[in-house]
Amino acid sequence: MNTRPVWLGKPRPIAIALKALALTLICAVVVFPFLVVISTSIATQQQIDANGGYVIWPTSVSFEAYKEIFNGTQVSRSIVISVGVTAVGTAFSLACTVLAAYGLSRRQSLFQRGLLSFVLFTLLFAPGMIPVYLMVKQLGMLNTYWSLIIPTAVSAFNIVIVRGFIQAIPHELFDAARMDGAGEWRILRSVVLPNSKAVIAVVGLFIAVGYWNNYFGPLLYLNDTEMWPLQLVMRTFVLDNNVTTNAQAIPGYVAPPAQSVQMALVAIATLPILCVYPFLTKHMSKGMLTGAIKG
Amino acid sequence: MAVNQTLPRVNPPPENKLHTQRKMPFLTKLWRDSPLLVMVAPAVLILLLFTYIPLLGSVIAFMDYVPFLGFTGSEWVGWANFSSLFSDTAFWNALWNTAQITLLQIVLFFPVPILLAVLLNTVAMPMAKRFVQSVIYLPHFLSWVIIVALFQQVLGGNGVLNRFLLTHDMSPFEIMSNPDTFKLLLTTQAIWKDAGWGTIIFLAAIAAINPGLYEAATIDGAGAWQRFWHVTLPGMRPIIVLMLILRLGDSLTVGFEQILLQRDAVGPGAAEVLDTFTYFNGVVDGSWGTATAAGLLKGVVSLLLVLAANKLAHRLGEEGVYRR
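Output (C-alpha coordinates, whole complex):
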Protein backbone atom coordinates (compact mmCIF):
# COMPACT_ATOMS: atom_id res chain seq x y z
CA MET A 1 0.00 0.00 0.00
CA ASN A 2 1.19 3.48 -0.75
CA THR A 3 -0.12 6.87 0.26
CA ARG A 4 2.17 9.01 -1.86
CA PRO A 5 0.27 11.88 -3.48
CA VAL A 6 0.30 11.96 -7.30
CA TRP A 7 1.99 15.32 -7.63
CA LEU A 8 5.04 14.24 -5.69
CA GLY A 9 6.50 11.96 -8.36
CA LYS A 10 8.68 8.94 -7.73
CA PRO A 11 11.54 9.21 -5.22
CA ARG A 12 14.99 8.10 -6.27
CA PRO A 13 15.93 4.52 -5.28
CA ILE A 14 18.99 5.77 -3.41
CA ALA A 15 16.79 8.00 -1.23
CA ILE A 16 14.51 5.08 -0.41
CA ALA A 17 17.48 2.88 0.43
CA LEU A 18 19.04 5.51 2.72
CA LYS A 19 15.75 6.08 4.49
CA ALA A 20 15.16 2.37 5.02
CA LEU A 21 18.69 2.01 6.32
CA ALA A 22 18.25 4.89 8.77
CA LEU A 23 14.95 3.55 10.11
CA THR A 24 16.33 0.02 10.42
CA LEU A 25 19.29 1.34 12.39
CA ILE A 26 17.03 3.34 14.70
CA CYS A 27 14.85 0.30 15.37
CA ALA A 28 17.92 -1.87 15.91
CA VAL A 29 19.26 0.55 18.53
CA VAL A 30 15.97 0.19 20.42
CA VAL A 31 15.60 -3.57 20.05
CA PHE A 32 19.22 -4.71 20.53
CA PRO A 33 19.42 -4.24 24.34
CA PHE A 34 16.27 -6.33 24.75
CA LEU A 35 17.81 -9.10 22.67
CA VAL A 36 20.84 -9.12 24.96
CA VAL A 37 18.58 -9.20 28.05
CA ILE A 38 16.45 -12.11 26.86
CA SER A 39 19.41 -14.10 25.55
CA THR A 40 21.46 -13.65 28.71
CA SER A 41 18.53 -14.58 30.91
CA ILE A 42 18.15 -17.98 29.26
CA ALA A 43 21.84 -18.73 28.70
CA THR A 44 23.97 -21.20 30.63
CA GLN A 45 26.93 -20.44 32.90
CA GLN A 46 29.50 -21.76 30.39
CA GLN A 47 28.29 -19.55 27.59
CA ILE A 48 28.15 -16.46 29.80
CA ASP A 49 31.65 -17.15 31.09
CA ALA A 50 32.95 -17.71 27.59
CA ASN A 51 31.49 -14.40 26.42
CA GLY A 52 32.51 -12.49 29.52
CA GLY A 53 29.17 -11.47 31.03
CA TYR A 54 26.53 -11.33 28.35
CA VAL A 55 25.11 -13.35 25.49
CA ILE A 56 23.70 -12.01 22.25
CA TRP A 57 22.45 -15.30 20.83
CA PRO A 58 22.07 -18.26 23.18
CA THR A 59 23.30 -21.63 21.95
CA SER A 60 21.54 -23.59 24.67
CA VAL A 61 18.41 -22.61 26.53
CA SER A 62 17.73 -22.90 30.25
CA PHE A 63 14.93 -21.37 32.28
CA GLU A 64 16.66 -21.89 35.63
CA ALA A 65 16.92 -18.14 36.23
CA TYR A 66 13.16 -17.68 35.92
CA LYS A 67 12.53 -20.66 38.21
CA GLU A 68 14.91 -19.09 40.70
CA ILE A 69 13.03 -15.79 40.62
CA PHE A 70 9.67 -17.41 41.30
CA ASN A 71 11.04 -19.66 43.98
CA GLY A 72 10.33 -17.81 47.18
CA THR A 73 13.22 -15.37 47.35
CA GLN A 74 13.00 -11.64 47.99
CA VAL A 75 12.33 -11.24 44.28
CA SER A 76 9.14 -13.31 44.30
CA ARG A 77 7.81 -11.27 47.20
CA SER A 78 8.67 -7.99 45.49
CA ILE A 79 6.83 -9.09 42.33
CA VAL A 80 3.71 -9.85 44.37
CA ILE A 81 4.03 -6.46 46.10
CA SER A 82 4.44 -4.62 42.81
CA VAL A 83 1.45 -6.35 41.27
CA GLY A 84 -0.66 -5.60 44.35
CA VAL A 85 0.32 -1.93 44.59
CA THR A 86 -0.23 -1.48 40.86
CA ALA A 87 -3.66 -3.14 40.93
CA VAL A 88 -4.99 -1.35 44.02
CA GLY A 89 -3.36 1.93 43.05
CA THR A 90 -4.77 1.87 39.52
CA ALA A 91 -8.28 1.04 40.73
CA PHE A 92 -8.19 3.77 43.36
CA SER A 93 -6.64 6.41 41.13
CA LEU A 94 -8.96 5.62 38.23
CA ALA A 95 -12.02 5.81 40.50
CA CYS A 96 -10.97 9.23 41.82
CA THR A 97 -10.21 10.44 38.29
CA VAL A 98 -13.47 9.31 36.65
CA LEU A 99 -15.64 10.52 39.54
CA ALA A 100 -13.98 13.93 39.54
CA ALA A 101 -14.14 14.13 35.74
CA TYR A 102 -17.90 13.52 35.71
CA GLY A 103 -18.47 15.72 38.76
CA LEU A 104 -16.76 18.59 36.96
CA SER A 105 -18.26 18.00 33.53
CA ARG A 106 -21.53 19.98 33.86
CA ARG A 107 -21.08 23.65 33.31
CA GLN A 108 -24.06 24.88 35.32
CA SER A 109 -23.59 22.78 38.43
CA LEU A 110 -22.91 24.36 41.79
CA PHE A 111 -19.30 25.47 42.49
CA GLN A 112 -18.23 23.87 39.17
CA ARG A 113 -16.06 26.82 38.11
CA GLY A 114 -14.37 27.15 41.46
CA LEU A 115 -13.64 23.44 41.82
CA LEU A 116 -12.37 23.19 38.25
CA SER A 117 -9.95 26.08 38.84
CA PHE A 118 -8.89 24.39 42.07
CA VAL A 119 -7.95 21.27 40.08
CA LEU A 120 -6.39 23.09 37.11
CA PHE A 121 -4.22 25.30 39.31
CA THR A 122 -2.20 22.23 40.33
CA LEU A 123 -0.92 21.96 36.75
CA LEU A 124 1.05 25.17 37.30
CA PHE A 125 2.72 24.52 40.62
CA ALA A 126 4.31 21.38 41.94
CA PRO A 127 4.94 21.31 45.68
CA GLY A 128 8.49 20.54 46.79
CA MET A 129 9.60 17.04 47.64
CA ILE A 130 10.23 17.81 51.32
CA PRO A 131 6.81 19.24 52.26
CA VAL A 132 5.08 16.28 50.58
CA TYR A 133 7.33 13.88 52.45
CA LEU A 134 6.54 15.60 55.74
CA MET A 135 2.82 15.43 54.93
CA VAL A 136 3.00 11.69 54.28
CA LYS A 137 4.89 11.34 57.56
CA GLN A 138 2.34 13.48 59.42
CA LEU A 139 -0.52 11.30 58.19
CA GLY A 140 1.23 8.19 59.50
CA MET A 141 1.60 6.71 56.00
CA LEU A 142 5.38 6.20 56.14
CA ASN A 143 6.23 2.51 55.76
CA THR A 144 2.77 1.66 54.48
CA TYR A 145 1.76 0.87 50.92
CA TRP A 146 -0.70 3.75 51.02
CA SER A 147 2.27 6.11 50.73
CA LEU A 148 2.91 4.67 47.25
CA ILE A 149 -0.74 4.86 46.21
CA ILE A 150 -2.48 7.94 47.56
CA PRO A 151 -0.12 10.93 47.12
CA THR A 152 0.12 10.41 43.35
CA ALA A 153 -3.43 9.13 42.81
CA VAL A 154 -4.95 12.33 41.43
CA SER A 155 -3.51 14.14 38.44
CA ALA A 156 -5.26 17.19 37.03
CA PHE A 157 -4.03 16.18 33.59
CA ASN A 158 -5.89 12.85 33.68
CA ILE A 159 -9.04 14.51 34.99
CA VAL A 160 -8.97 17.03 32.14
CA ILE A 161 -8.61 14.27 29.53
CA VAL A 162 -11.46 12.13 30.88
CA ARG A 163 -13.65 15.19 31.42
CA GLY A 164 -13.17 16.19 27.77
CA PHE A 165 -14.42 12.79 26.65
CA ILE A 166 -17.42 12.88 28.95
CA GLN A 167 -18.37 16.30 27.64
CA ALA A 168 -18.24 14.96 24.09
CA ILE A 169 -20.95 12.38 24.84
CA PRO A 170 -24.10 13.55 23.05
CA HIS A 171 -26.14 15.49 25.56
CA GLU A 172 -29.40 13.88 24.44
CA LEU A 173 -28.30 10.69 26.20
CA PHE A 174 -28.10 12.55 29.51
CA ASP A 175 -31.45 14.24 28.92
CA ALA A 176 -33.12 10.93 28.10
CA ALA A 177 -31.71 9.28 31.21
CA ARG A 178 -32.83 12.18 33.37
CA MET A 179 -36.28 12.05 31.78
CA ASP A 180 -36.45 8.41 32.84
CA GLY A 181 -35.76 9.47 36.39
CA ALA A 182 -32.09 8.47 36.64
CA GLY A 183 -30.02 10.19 39.34
CA GLU A 184 -26.39 11.27 38.87
CA TRP A 185 -24.97 7.96 40.11
CA ARG A 186 -27.21 6.02 37.77
CA ILE A 187 -26.23 8.29 34.88
CA LEU A 188 -22.56 7.75 35.71
CA ARG A 189 -23.07 4.00 35.60
CA SER A 190 -25.41 3.69 32.64
CA VAL A 191 -24.42 6.59 30.37
CA VAL A 192 -20.94 7.86 31.21
CA LEU A 193 -19.06 4.61 31.86
CA PRO A 194 -20.29 2.67 28.79
CA ASN A 195 -19.57 5.65 26.55
CA SER A 196 -16.07 6.44 27.74
CA LYS A 197 -14.60 2.94 27.96
CA ALA A 198 -11.76 3.71 25.56
CA VAL A 199 -10.46 6.77 27.37
CA ILE A 200 -10.82 5.10 30.76
CA ALA A 201 -8.81 2.14 29.47
CA VAL A 202 -6.00 4.33 28.16
CA VAL A 203 -5.81 6.61 31.18
CA GLY A 204 -5.95 3.52 33.40
CA LEU A 205 -3.05 1.94 31.55
CA PHE A 206 -0.96 5.11 31.86
CA ILE A 207 -1.71 5.18 35.59
CA ALA A 208 -0.81 1.49 35.92
CA VAL A 209 2.51 1.97 34.09
CA GLY A 210 3.27 4.83 36.48
CA TYR A 211 2.65 2.70 39.57
CA TRP A 212 4.56 -0.26 38.15
CA ASN A 213 7.61 1.87 37.30
CA ASN A 214 7.59 3.90 40.52
CA TYR A 215 11.07 3.77 41.98
CA PHE A 216 11.50 6.94 43.98
CA GLY A 217 8.24 6.61 45.98
CA PRO A 218 9.23 3.37 47.72
CA LEU A 219 12.80 4.60 48.15
CA LEU A 220 11.49 7.70 49.93
CA TYR A 221 8.67 6.22 51.99
CA LEU A 222 9.59 2.58 52.76
CA ASN A 223 12.42 1.85 55.19
CA ASP A 224 11.74 -1.86 55.48
CA THR A 225 13.50 -3.82 52.71
CA GLU A 226 10.95 -6.61 53.22
CA MET A 227 8.32 -4.27 51.79
CA TRP A 228 10.30 -3.31 48.70
CA PRO A 229 8.60 -3.55 45.31
CA LEU A 230 10.25 -4.94 42.20
CA GLN A 231 11.92 -1.75 40.96
CA LEU A 232 13.93 -1.32 44.17
CA VAL A 233 14.91 -4.98 44.35
CA MET A 234 15.91 -4.80 40.71
CA ARG A 235 18.17 -1.86 41.49
CA THR A 236 19.87 -3.83 44.27
CA PHE A 237 20.27 -6.94 42.14
CA VAL A 238 21.20 -5.45 38.79
CA LEU A 239 22.68 -2.00 39.33
CA ASP A 240 24.35 -2.62 42.69
CA ASN A 241 25.28 -6.11 41.46
CA ASN A 242 24.12 -7.62 44.74
CA VAL A 243 22.39 -10.89 43.82
CA THR A 244 20.95 -13.07 46.56
CA THR A 245 19.84 -16.52 45.43
CA ASN A 246 18.51 -19.63 47.11
CA ALA A 247 22.04 -21.04 47.17
CA GLN A 248 22.64 -19.28 50.50
CA ALA A 249 19.58 -20.93 52.02
CA ILE A 250 19.75 -24.45 50.57
CA PRO A 251 23.06 -26.36 50.87
CA GLY A 252 24.14 -28.19 47.77
CA TYR A 253 21.88 -26.15 45.50
CA VAL A 254 23.54 -24.80 42.40
CA ALA A 255 22.12 -21.40 41.61
CA PRO A 256 21.75 -20.23 38.03
CA PRO A 257 24.32 -17.66 36.84
CA ALA A 258 23.96 -14.27 38.53
CA GLN A 259 23.89 -12.53 35.15
CA SER A 260 20.97 -14.69 34.05
CA VAL A 261 19.05 -13.92 37.24
CA GLN A 262 19.69 -10.21 36.75
CA MET A 263 18.52 -10.22 33.16
CA ALA A 264 15.53 -12.43 33.95
CA LEU A 265 14.53 -9.80 36.48
CA VAL A 266 14.76 -7.05 33.87
CA ALA A 267 12.72 -9.19 31.47
CA ILE A 268 10.03 -9.82 34.11
CA ALA A 269 9.86 -6.11 34.93
CA THR A 270 9.44 -5.28 31.23
CA LEU A 271 6.86 -7.98 30.53
CA PRO A 272 3.73 -6.22 31.90
CA ILE A 273 4.63 -3.13 29.88
CA LEU A 274 4.93 -5.22 26.72
CA CYS A 275 1.55 -6.83 27.46
CA VAL A 276 -0.36 -3.57 27.76
CA TYR A 277 1.61 -1.81 25.05
CA PRO A 278 -0.52 -2.89 22.04
CA PHE A 279 -3.63 -1.44 23.74
CA LEU A 280 -1.80 1.77 24.51
CA THR A 281 -0.63 2.34 20.94
CA LYS A 282 -4.04 1.43 19.57
CA HIS A 283 -5.90 4.13 21.48
CA MET A 284 -3.10 6.61 22.00
CA SER A 285 -3.19 8.53 18.78
CA LYS A 286 -6.99 8.44 18.67
CA GLY A 287 -8.10 11.19 20.98
CA MET A 288 -5.58 11.91 23.62
CA LEU A 289 -3.05 13.69 21.51
CA THR A 290 -5.26 15.22 18.91
CA GLY A 291 -6.94 16.88 21.87
CA ALA A 292 -3.58 18.05 23.14
CA ILE A 293 -2.69 19.73 19.89
CA LYS A 294 -6.01 21.46 19.38
CA GLY A 295 -5.24 23.29 22.62
CA MET B 1 -16.06 22.64 6.57
CA ALA B 2 -16.81 24.01 3.13
CA VAL B 3 -20.37 22.68 3.28
CA ASN B 4 -21.05 24.46 6.54
CA GLN B 5 -19.99 27.78 5.15
CA THR B 6 -22.40 27.68 2.24
CA LEU B 7 -25.40 26.83 4.42
CA PRO B 8 -27.51 29.73 5.69
CA ARG B 9 -26.74 30.62 9.28
CA VAL B 10 -29.23 29.29 11.76
CA ASN B 11 -29.35 30.48 15.33
CA PRO B 12 -28.30 27.73 17.74
CA PRO B 13 -31.19 26.21 19.67
CA PRO B 14 -31.57 27.97 23.01
CA GLU B 15 -31.39 24.74 25.00
CA ASN B 16 -28.65 25.82 27.39
CA LYS B 17 -30.11 29.20 28.08
CA LEU B 18 -33.19 27.77 29.76
CA HIS B 19 -31.18 26.39 32.65
CA THR B 20 -29.18 29.52 33.35
CA GLN B 21 -31.96 32.02 32.94
CA ARG B 22 -34.18 30.44 35.54
CA LYS B 23 -32.73 31.50 38.89
CA MET B 24 -32.66 28.52 41.17
CA PRO B 25 -32.57 28.97 44.95
CA PHE B 26 -29.19 28.01 46.41
CA LEU B 27 -30.49 25.15 48.54
CA THR B 28 -32.42 23.61 45.66
CA LYS B 29 -29.29 23.77 43.53
CA LEU B 30 -27.20 22.30 46.35
CA TRP B 31 -29.68 19.42 46.69
CA ARG B 32 -29.72 18.87 42.94
CA ASP B 33 -25.91 18.93 42.58
CA SER B 34 -24.93 17.23 45.83
CA PRO B 35 -24.11 13.89 44.12
CA LEU B 36 -21.71 15.72 41.79
CA LEU B 37 -20.03 17.41 44.75
CA VAL B 38 -19.65 14.06 46.49
CA MET B 39 -18.00 12.68 43.33
CA VAL B 40 -15.46 15.49 43.19
CA ALA B 41 -14.71 15.26 46.91
CA PRO B 42 -12.04 12.47 46.93
CA ALA B 43 -9.95 14.13 44.23
CA VAL B 44 -10.24 17.53 45.88
CA LEU B 45 -9.29 16.08 49.25
CA ILE B 46 -6.19 14.38 47.83
CA LEU B 47 -5.09 17.50 45.95
CA LEU B 48 -5.64 19.53 49.11
CA LEU B 49 -3.56 17.15 51.22
CA PHE B 50 -0.72 16.43 48.82
CA THR B 51 -0.51 19.59 46.70
CA TYR B 52 -2.04 22.63 48.40
CA ILE B 53 -1.05 22.04 52.02
CA PRO B 54 2.52 21.07 51.02
CA LEU B 55 2.65 24.28 48.96
CA LEU B 56 1.81 26.20 52.13
CA GLY B 57 4.20 23.88 53.97
CA SER B 58 7.01 25.44 51.94
CA VAL B 59 7.09 28.06 54.70
CA ILE B 60 9.51 25.77 56.50
CA ALA B 61 12.05 27.26 54.08
CA PHE B 62 11.91 30.21 56.51
CA MET B 63 12.06 28.06 59.63
CA ASP B 64 14.59 26.12 61.60
CA TYR B 65 12.32 23.12 61.19
CA VAL B 66 12.54 20.40 63.82
CA PRO B 67 10.18 17.47 63.06
CA PHE B 68 9.58 16.93 66.80
CA LEU B 69 8.36 20.50 67.26
CA GLY B 70 6.34 20.61 64.04
CA PHE B 71 5.14 23.66 62.10
CA THR B 72 3.86 25.54 65.12
CA GLY B 73 6.76 24.88 67.49
CA SER B 74 9.71 25.42 65.13
CA GLU B 75 11.47 28.77 65.16
CA TRP B 76 11.21 31.36 62.37
CA VAL B 77 14.62 32.24 61.01
CA GLY B 78 13.77 34.57 58.09
CA TRP B 79 16.15 34.22 55.14
CA ALA B 80 18.81 32.33 57.10
CA ASN B 81 18.19 29.08 55.21
CA PHE B 82 18.63 30.88 51.90
CA SER B 83 21.83 32.59 52.95
CA SER B 84 23.30 29.30 54.17
CA LEU B 85 22.19 27.76 50.86
CA PHE B 86 23.96 30.49 48.87
CA SER B 87 27.16 30.06 50.84
CA ASP B 88 27.15 26.29 50.23
CA THR B 89 29.46 25.32 47.36
CA ALA B 90 27.56 22.01 46.97
CA PHE B 91 24.43 24.00 46.09
CA TRP B 92 26.23 26.03 43.43
CA ASN B 93 27.74 22.83 42.07
CA ALA B 94 24.26 21.27 41.87
CA LEU B 95 22.88 24.36 40.13
CA TRP B 96 25.76 24.43 37.66
CA ASN B 97 25.37 20.73 36.86
CA THR B 98 21.64 21.22 36.35
CA ALA B 99 22.23 24.13 33.98
CA GLN B 100 24.83 22.18 31.98
CA ILE B 101 22.55 19.15 31.63
CA THR B 102 19.61 21.31 30.55
CA LEU B 103 21.75 23.09 27.97
CA LEU B 104 23.09 19.79 26.62
CA GLN B 105 19.59 18.38 26.37
CA ILE B 106 18.20 21.43 24.60
CA VAL B 107 21.03 21.37 22.06
CA LEU B 108 21.33 17.59 21.55
CA PHE B 109 17.98 16.10 22.59
CA PHE B 110 15.42 18.71 21.57
CA PRO B 111 15.98 18.59 17.75
CA VAL B 112 15.98 14.76 17.59
CA PRO B 113 12.19 14.17 17.82
CA ILE B 114 11.62 16.94 15.26
CA LEU B 115 13.99 15.38 12.74
CA LEU B 116 12.67 11.90 13.49
CA ALA B 117 9.10 13.09 12.92
CA VAL B 118 10.06 14.65 9.59
CA LEU B 119 11.80 11.43 8.56
CA LEU B 120 8.82 9.29 9.65
CA ASN B 121 6.44 11.57 7.82
CA THR B 122 8.18 10.85 4.52
CA VAL B 123 7.62 7.11 4.89
CA ALA B 124 4.90 6.35 2.34
CA MET B 125 4.11 2.82 3.47
CA PRO B 126 1.62 2.95 6.36
CA MET B 127 2.61 -0.51 7.59
CA ALA B 128 6.31 0.36 7.85
CA LYS B 129 5.51 3.68 9.46
CA ARG B 130 3.30 2.12 12.11
CA PHE B 131 5.88 -0.57 12.83
CA VAL B 132 8.68 1.95 13.35
CA GLN B 133 6.41 4.07 15.53
CA SER B 134 5.51 1.14 17.80
CA VAL B 135 9.17 0.28 18.22
CA ILE B 136 10.42 3.77 19.02
CA TYR B 137 7.58 4.68 21.42
CA LEU B 138 8.24 1.65 23.59
CA PRO B 139 11.23 2.81 25.69
CA HIS B 140 9.15 5.71 27.03
CA PHE B 141 7.15 3.23 29.12
CA LEU B 142 10.13 1.54 30.76
CA SER B 143 11.31 2.49 34.22
CA TRP B 144 14.65 4.20 34.73
CA VAL B 145 15.94 1.16 36.60
CA ILE B 146 15.42 -0.92 33.46
CA ILE B 147 16.93 1.73 31.17
CA VAL B 148 20.06 2.05 33.28
CA ALA B 149 20.32 -1.74 33.46
CA LEU B 150 20.06 -1.98 29.66
CA PHE B 151 22.75 0.67 29.20
CA GLN B 152 25.01 -1.11 31.66
CA GLN B 153 24.55 -4.36 29.78
CA VAL B 154 25.53 -2.80 26.47
CA LEU B 155 27.98 -0.03 27.40
CA GLY B 156 29.17 -1.04 30.89
CA GLY B 157 32.61 -2.35 31.89
CA ASN B 158 31.58 -5.95 31.07
CA GLY B 159 29.08 -4.93 28.43
CA VAL B 160 28.77 -5.80 24.80
CA LEU B 161 30.75 -2.84 23.48
CA ASN B 162 33.73 -3.18 25.79
CA ARG B 163 33.96 -6.97 25.36
CA PHE B 164 33.94 -6.42 21.62
CA LEU B 165 36.74 -3.85 21.90
CA LEU B 166 38.78 -6.12 24.20
CA THR B 167 38.49 -9.17 21.98
CA HIS B 168 39.55 -7.07 19.01
CA ASP B 169 42.65 -5.73 20.79
CA MET B 170 41.36 -2.23 21.39
CA SER B 171 41.30 -0.43 24.71
CA PRO B 172 37.88 -0.36 26.43
CA PHE B 173 35.94 2.83 27.16
CA GLU B 174 34.86 3.70 30.66
CA ILE B 175 31.36 4.99 29.92
CA MET B 176 28.99 4.18 32.77
CA SER B 177 31.24 5.46 35.58
CA ASN B 178 33.16 8.28 33.92
CA PRO B 179 32.40 11.65 35.58
CA ASP B 180 33.74 13.59 32.57
CA THR B 181 31.24 12.18 30.11
CA PHE B 182 28.42 11.57 32.59
CA LYS B 183 26.27 14.42 31.30
CA LEU B 184 26.56 13.12 27.74
CA LEU B 185 25.57 9.67 28.98
CA LEU B 186 22.49 11.15 30.67
CA THR B 187 21.54 12.91 27.45
CA THR B 188 22.04 9.74 25.40
CA GLN B 189 19.84 7.77 27.78
CA ALA B 190 17.17 10.48 27.65
CA ILE B 191 17.24 10.41 23.84
CA TRP B 192 17.01 6.61 23.80
CA LYS B 193 14.04 6.68 26.17
CA ASP B 194 11.99 9.66 24.99
CA ALA B 195 13.01 10.85 21.52
CA GLY B 196 10.62 8.39 19.87
CA TRP B 197 7.75 9.31 22.15
CA GLY B 198 8.49 12.98 21.54
CA THR B 199 7.77 12.58 17.81
CA ILE B 200 4.02 12.17 18.46
CA ILE B 201 3.30 15.82 18.94
CA PHE B 202 5.46 16.86 15.97
CA LEU B 203 3.89 14.22 13.72
CA ALA B 204 0.49 15.63 14.66
CA ALA B 205 1.76 19.12 13.80
CA ILE B 206 2.98 17.94 10.38
CA ALA B 207 -0.31 16.13 9.73
CA ALA B 208 -2.15 19.40 10.38
CA ILE B 209 -0.32 21.19 7.56
CA ASN B 210 -2.56 21.80 4.56
CA PRO B 211 -1.40 19.42 1.76
CA GLY B 212 -2.37 22.07 -0.79
CA LEU B 213 0.67 24.05 0.31
CA TYR B 214 2.99 21.19 -0.67
CA GLU B 215 1.19 20.76 -3.96
CA ALA B 216 1.47 24.46 -4.75
CA ALA B 217 5.14 24.50 -3.75
CA THR B 218 5.88 21.50 -5.97
CA ILE B 219 4.10 23.09 -8.94
CA ASP B 220 6.17 26.22 -8.34
CA GLY B 221 9.26 24.02 -8.70
CA ALA B 222 10.27 23.54 -5.06
CA GLY B 223 12.41 20.50 -4.38
CA ALA B 224 12.18 18.28 -1.31
CA TRP B 225 14.60 20.41 0.65
CA GLN B 226 12.78 23.64 -0.22
CA ARG B 227 9.41 22.13 0.69
CA PHE B 228 10.85 21.12 4.05
CA TRP B 229 12.32 24.58 4.65
CA HIS B 230 9.41 26.69 3.41
CA VAL B 231 6.35 24.55 4.21
CA THR B 232 7.03 21.85 6.82
CA LEU B 233 9.20 23.88 9.17
CA PRO B 234 7.00 27.01 9.26
CA GLY B 235 3.98 24.73 9.78
CA MET B 236 5.61 23.12 12.79
CA ARG B 237 6.94 26.35 14.23
CA PRO B 238 4.17 27.10 16.78
CA ILE B 239 4.47 23.61 18.26
CA ILE B 240 8.28 23.76 18.29
CA VAL B 241 8.14 27.09 20.13
CA LEU B 242 5.54 25.73 22.56
CA MET B 243 7.62 22.65 23.35
CA LEU B 244 10.75 24.76 23.75
CA ILE B 245 8.97 27.04 26.22
CA LEU B 246 7.73 24.07 28.22
CA ARG B 247 11.24 22.63 28.20
CA LEU B 248 12.69 25.94 29.39
CA GLY B 249 10.16 25.99 32.21
CA ASP B 250 11.49 22.59 33.20
CA SER B 251 15.11 23.76 33.01
CA LEU B 252 15.74 23.00 36.66
CA THR B 253 14.18 19.52 36.47
CA VAL B 254 16.61 17.05 34.94
CA GLY B 255 15.88 13.33 35.22
CA PHE B 256 15.77 12.93 38.99
CA GLU B 257 15.35 9.13 39.16
CA GLN B 258 17.80 8.66 36.31
CA ILE B 259 20.51 10.61 38.12
CA LEU B 260 19.75 9.21 41.56
CA LEU B 261 20.32 5.70 40.18
CA GLN B 262 23.73 6.57 38.74
CA ARG B 263 24.99 9.15 41.21
CA ASP B 264 27.04 6.64 43.19
CA ALA B 265 28.87 5.44 40.08
CA VAL B 266 30.34 8.87 39.25
CA GLY B 267 30.09 10.73 42.55
CA PRO B 268 28.17 13.89 43.50
CA GLY B 269 30.74 16.20 41.90
CA ALA B 270 29.48 15.40 38.42
CA ALA B 271 26.02 14.07 39.20
CA GLU B 272 24.51 16.28 41.89
CA VAL B 273 21.58 18.30 40.54
CA LEU B 274 19.05 20.48 42.37
CA ASP B 275 16.58 17.63 43.02
CA THR B 276 19.18 15.20 44.32
CA PHE B 277 20.66 18.02 46.42
CA THR B 278 17.22 18.57 47.98
CA TYR B 279 16.75 14.86 48.57
CA PHE B 280 20.12 14.22 50.20
CA ASN B 281 20.06 17.39 52.30
CA GLY B 282 16.50 17.03 53.48
CA VAL B 283 15.45 13.41 53.66
CA VAL B 284 18.88 11.85 54.14
CA ASP B 285 20.69 14.47 56.25
CA GLY B 286 17.69 16.10 57.95
CA SER B 287 18.45 19.74 57.04
CA TRP B 288 14.76 20.27 56.32
CA GLY B 289 14.87 24.07 56.16
CA THR B 290 17.76 24.33 53.70
CA ALA B 291 16.44 21.55 51.50
CA THR B 292 12.98 23.10 51.34
CA ALA B 293 14.56 26.46 50.55
CA ALA B 294 16.32 24.83 47.58
CA GLY B 295 13.03 23.24 46.47
CA LEU B 296 11.08 26.48 46.82
CA LEU B 297 13.73 28.42 44.94
CA LYS B 298 13.51 25.85 42.16
CA GLY B 299 9.73 26.17 41.94
CA VAL B 300 9.74 29.96 41.81
CA VAL B 301 12.58 30.18 39.28
CA SER B 302 10.85 27.58 37.05
CA LEU B 303 7.66 29.62 37.00
CA LEU B 304 9.60 32.79 36.18
CA LEU B 305 11.42 30.95 33.38
CA VAL B 306 8.15 29.87 31.75
CA LEU B 307 6.75 33.39 31.97
CA ALA B 308 9.96 34.86 30.55
CA ALA B 309 10.16 32.34 27.71
CA ASN B 310 6.53 33.01 26.89
CA LYS B 311 7.13 36.75 26.87
CA LEU B 312 10.03 36.23 24.49
CA ALA B 313 7.85 34.08 22.23
CA HIS B 314 5.23 36.85 22.11
CA ARG B 315 7.96 39.36 21.20
CA LEU B 316 8.99 37.13 18.34
CA GLY B 317 5.40 36.98 17.11
CA GLU B 318 4.58 33.47 18.30
CA GLU B 319 1.59 32.36 20.30
CA GLY B 320 3.34 30.59 23.16
CA VAL B 321 1.55 28.71 25.93
CA TYR B 322 -1.25 31.20 26.44
CA ARG B 323 -2.48 34.01 24.25
CA ARG B 324 -1.79 37.63 25.00
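Residues 270 and 278 of chain A are 14 Å apart (CA to CA).
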